[in-house]
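Chain A, query sequence.
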Amino acid sequence: MCFFDMYKFSCGDWKWGNFRQHCQREYRTGETCGTKLVFQTINQPEKCQFCERIERKQRRYEKAASDVKRWQCEPQKYRCSIEKAMTDMSTLAQEIASIVNEKNARYVNIGNTRRNGHR
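Chain A, predicted structure.
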């Protein structure tokens, strides 16, 4: 059980940082046993990269939605713009879902590592 820094973001997410100290189980220089323990927690004022990517895409989605709402007062004049914005909104919704799934899979993989016998 080797010790690492842990970075904790304002959104509540975290990531492993630099290696700090060997445990008693690992005798080889430069190697770690694979089990990570927290040496110290370093609070970060910003959000994690997943949350920042999600927020950027949500802002673009909301902008497209407000554009569609504004353009629907004259649907014949803005028909192509509305169609393009709706396509963009669909794509953005899929990308947001993909990022959320990627973020959630990160936590599932951590739990599976211990259950599969890896240390």
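Residues 49-115 form one domain. The chain has two domains: 2-43, 49-115.
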